[in-house]
Amino acid sequence: MLGLELVVVLAASVIVAGVAAPYLRVAAPILLLVIGAVLGFVPALREVSLPPEVMLLVFLPALLYWESLSTSLREMRRMLRSIILMSTLLVVATAAAVAAVAHTFGLPWGPAWVLGAALAPTDATAVGVIARHLPRRLVTILRAESLVNDGTALVIYGVAVGVTAGAERLSALHVTGLFALSVVGGFAAGLVTAWLARFVYRRLDHPLQENAVSVLTPFVAFLLAEAIHASGVLAVVVAGLGVTRFAPRVIRADARQSVFAFWRLSTFLLNGALFVLVGLQLQSSVRGLTSVPIPTAVLGVVGVSLTVVGTRLAWMFTSPYVLRALDRRPVQRTRRVGARARIVSATSGFRGAVSLAAALAVPEVTAAGGPFPYRDLIVFVVSGTIVATLVIQGLALPWVIRWARLPADTDVTEERELAERLATEEAMAAMPVIAERLGTDDDVLKRTRAEYEKHLRVAQTEGVEPEDADHARRHRHDYAELRLALIAHKRETMLRLRDEQRIDDLVLGELQNKLDVEEVRLARRDAEA
Questions:
Q1: Residue 49: pLDDT over 90
Q2: List of long-range contacts for 199-202, beta carbons under 8 Å, 24+ apart
Q3: Cβ of 220: how many Cβ atoms within 10 Å?
Q4: How far apart are CA 131 and CA 350, in angstroms?
Q5: Among candidate residues 33, 111, 18, 41, the one with its CA nearest the CA of residue 284
Q6: Dmax (CA) of the chain
Q7: C-alpha span between 30 and 37 (Å, rounded)
Q8: Are 371 and 360 spatial neighbours (Cβ–Cβ below 8 Å)?
Q9: pLDDT per residue over 284-316, tens digit each?
Q10: For residues 457, 461, 463 and 465, what is the CA-based torsion angle, rounded to 10 degrees?
């Protein structure tokens, strides 16, 4: 029964944290970590462990796929150089710094590099949840870095584990080949998966079947990459970015709506469950620590955590100036980030799922049959560092953001208004031709044109005087408020008809779904206004 009890506990924890976090003004992942650590004292849950296979094959593909679906590919292209440098050189620098510090604490170089590689990548899910309110440009860099840097870190990790366990021999050519296979193979697997998904989508005409393809896509990408010993993480990310390109033209509206509803719910639950399990794992790592005394291990967590944060902070204040000295093109000046924004970025370097999965995946025995040296200490330090970065940096980030006084990000609003205005204008221009082709009645055409003209007047807020813009926004708010009230009245009428047994429950469900779609759209636009 422990499996069922664990599912109930995880789901209840996610709900409780989601409700309590706004009142406590604490990010939900931090609260979930605390809940997980407290649950570790429950005798029935003490033996709960997080198998690395579950992390790598269930949690990671689904969570990374959703993060890639909600990442701006255009912004990634614009900031490609910074993303590549942070996902490669910064990962290597972090792994080396952590390994050096761990070695000073007494770890041999092999286990020290395993520890450094495990803690080198940032966590995409934590960044997506905790740092989502940052300006779009900064969030894109942080998300893209977290999505891509796992490939570099896992190559270093694989070499370090292989050398320490006696299964591999270290050479520059070998490491270069592994890295090339990881990146190129993962990229190719992601592209192939995206192409296959597009091929299948074009031949389906049922929302449930299209939903099934969406669920299958990240796991197919991960499987293809793993089959050729490439980066499954990178394959999932590339597949997700590829789907975002063709989805608006290939996937139908009703299927998109249900697909995104599914992914929002499933990733919400998986994210929450993952943070609770990390808290539980911290308890397990404490009980499993035998190679060194707990005070020594805690001191190691403090030293490694400071190293992880310090290395990232040093990178933020060295690499930009090196790039400015090497590249003085005028276009590069528009991509520069101020010192305050860099401190925010340094504070957002959370560690999470990939690091924990790597630590738990360290083999218990070497090729010679002996125990893997300091495996228990590696798991403990990784678990402690994850908790430290999530809790301390997560609590500090809102303060740092307020201190940084980052400029308001108006690009999204401006682009949305531009798209709404141009789409309405062009639709109105094409309306006579379309109506003639469809044989539309003149009364229907006049009614539709009147609706579009009203929508265009509401959308035209750019380039007008401030008082006119305020009037337009008030008009939009009043219009949405009236429509929402009418929808509520219609819903009450339908419920009354159902209660009077004048309509069936199935009919009510169909009609209510249409009202729900309209209500969500109007409520969202009213909130954005």
A1: no
A2: 201/246, 201/250, 201/251, 202/250
A3: 19
A4: 10
A5: 41
A6: 85
A7: 11
A8: no
A9: 888 888 888 989 999 999 999 999 999 999 999
A10: 100
